[in-house]
Amino acid sequence: MPEASTFLGAAHVCLRNVGKTYASPRGPVPAVAGIDLDLGAGEFVSIVGPSGCGKSTLLKLVAGLEGLSAGEIMVDGRRIDGPPDGLGVVFQRDVLLDWRTILQNVLLSVELAGKPTDAYRERALGLLARFGLGSFEHRYPWELSGGMRQRASICRALLSDPQLLLMDEPFGALDAMTRDDLNLELARIWQETRKTLLFITHSIAEAVFLSDRVAMMGRAPGSIMEIVAIDLPRPRSLAVRESAAFSHYVAHIRHHFAELGIVKE
To answer: What angle do CA 115, 119, 123 make, to 5 degrees?
Structure first.
């Protein structure tokens, strides 16, 4: 088992002593605290941790959708105070608009950015075809399954070819077969484009399968307890999950959470 690792290359995203505290009638509620993390350019980093540990809050902070209570986040060497340029986000829910067709939903991201949708139409159609939605561009979201809707939301996030992609448990509500299929497609797209990707998940196996490194967060206020480098050859097929090396990574991460009393062994 490789030792816990800290990224040492050129950083695309830097988090330094990042904290977020929410106000409530009963007093302050700290969500995350003391987060230090670098994402290398073109690196795939997953964050795993128990429910309520602040994983989604951390992603929103990197996306510039929440203000910091402490620390700083820099993207390409610039401190962010809002959504950075070249950003794509996929949320837990697909957030598709039921009154717009699937193609119109995918084009919405560039429309809101004030860009001409006609210039992106062919790319949108190409992405839909790649994700198995080539014959559904004129359907409406309520006509599609949950997995198909989430595929459309990924297409929307990829449309403007962002260099930084943030994904907040995008496959958590999907059945196992659909989840495997989308894991493979996401891995293929990342392999081709080498976007910097921050991926939030509850699934240890999913994190190990997809990632270059896996960061483990403890209970709220969430902080990063350990980072493990995943040294598995790419491209990865689902068969890698049957390997001894894969099992060792999963067991190591699970044991870490067991020591914290978060999961049982």
So the answer is: 115
Nearest to 260 by CA among 228, 221, 217: 217
Do 180 and 251 fall into the same domain? yes
Neighbours of 233 (CB within 10 A): 8
Residue type, 261: G
Sheet holding 196-201, edge to edge: 87-90, 164-168, 196-201, 44-48, 213-217, 224-229
The last residue of one of the domains, among 147, 162, 177, is 162
Query: What is the count of structural domains for the chain?
Result: 2
Q: 100 φ, ψ to 5°?
A: -115, 145
**What is the distance of C-alpha 180 from the center of its chain?**
16
Domain containing 260: what range?
1-86+163-265
Average pLDDT over residues 34-49: 96
Q: State pTM to two decimals.
A: 0.92
